[in-house]
Design brief:
By secondary structure, the chain is an alpha/beta fold. It contains nine helices and 13 strands. The protein has two domains: 172 residues, Peroxisomal Thiolase, Chain A, domain 1; 143 residues, Peroxisomal Thiolase, Chain A, domain 1, CATH 3.40.47.10. Helix 3 crosses helix 4.
């Protein structure tokens, strides 16, 4: 039986020019380069320039992904953009990207699942392609988290950065087995009981203000390791695969200690794990596509490889996506 699969036909990324190092952070808050590296693995982060919007970052990443796929905006019939830092309350940031690219057909909309946003966006676009409603979809993760940070809170402001990454998904034939090329499955979860562990203390309805990110780091760490390991196992078991079959894990780049603990729990070779948190910091929904683009450009991913994407974010939300490249 022939079925549609969502094949990654191109990817791209963009980082703002401004870089803030840990040494520079020492001049802003009571912290040290050594402490940040030891606790997070982060060495630097990119920060959007004044007037540089989330859509600006997304547009540049999208243009690179389209070029990588050898497609134009006229070939795209769907844009799903994951972000927690939209340009405006409405309309969606995705529609601003749509207009800038010159795409005049199809649909464009945002999804909001914080750091899990790109996984949610991939799953959404994949279902459009599987159902035959879309042929080529542009999936973007883009954030300007610097705009919702309390730069006097040393526990959070050192952790985050700005950036964008994108992939083009194109419909391809499959047989419905794990031998197919493309997205094999996606697995999404949320649990709203943990709102107060990771949230922004503002909003249109509640305070009529943007607010700042607030986090209880130790509790988030504990939940992240358990949930991420579980959702990766779920993806592998669903497809009849094991950890030994995995060629590359591309995790949400939140914290090097979370990455290490999750991989130990899964018993996956650390050499098979993409690590970019040291140079990008936590870019929320942008972190997975940024890391993916890095791995592609470094030629660490080959045709036929089994790739696992995983993330957890505020909400809590978490999820995984299994892809045969």
């Amino acid at each position: 039986m022939i079925t549609f699969r969502s094949v990654v036909s191109g990817c791209g990324s963009y980082l703002p020019e401004k870089i803030v190092t840990n040494k520079q952070m020492e001049e802003m808050v009571d912290t040290t380069d050594e402490w940040i590296i030891e606790r997070t693995g982060i060495h630097q982060r990119h920060i959007a320039a004044d007037g540089e919007l989330t859509s600006d970052l997304a547009i540049k990443a999208a243009q690179k992904a389209l070029a990588s796929a050898a497609l134009t905006a006229n070939d795209i019939d769907l844009i799903v953009l994951a972000t927690s830092t939209a340009d405006q309350t409405f309309p969606s940031t995705a529609t601003r990207v749509q207009a800038a690219l010159g795409m005049e057909k199809g649909a464009a909309f945002d999804v909001q699942a914080v750091c899990s946003g790109f996984i949610y966006a991939l799953a959404t676009a994949d279902n459009f392609i599987r159902s035959g409603q879309s042929k080529n979809a542009l999936v973007i993760g883009a954030e300007t988290f610097s705009r919702i940070l309390d730069w006097e809170d040393r526990a959070t402001c050192v952790l985050f950065g700005d950036g964008a990454g994108a992939v083009v998904l194109s419909a391809g034939p499959g047989t419905g087995t794990s031998d197919d090329q493309g997205i094999l499955s996606s697995h999404l979860h949320s649990d709203g009981r943990y709102n107060d562990l990771l949230y922004v203390d503002g909003g249109v309805s509640s305070t009529q203000s943007t607010g700042y990110l607030r986090m209880r780091g130790k509790e988030v760490f504990r939940h992240a390791v358990v949930n991420l390991a579980s959702v990766v196992k779920e993806a592998l078991e669903f497809n009849g695969l094991s950890a030994d079959d995995v060629d590359m894990v591309i995790p949400h780049q939140a914290n090097k200690r979370i990455l290490d603990a999750t991989i130990r729990k899964l018993k996956i070779d650390p050499d098979k794990v993409a690590v970019t948190v040291h140079k990008h910091a936590n870019t929320s929904a942008a972190s997975i596509p940024l890391a993916l683009d890095d791995m592609v450009r470094e030629e660490r991913i080959a045709r036929g490889d089994i790739i696992v994407l995983e993330a957890m974010g505020g909400g809590f939300t978490w999820g995984s996506c299994l892809i045969r490249w």
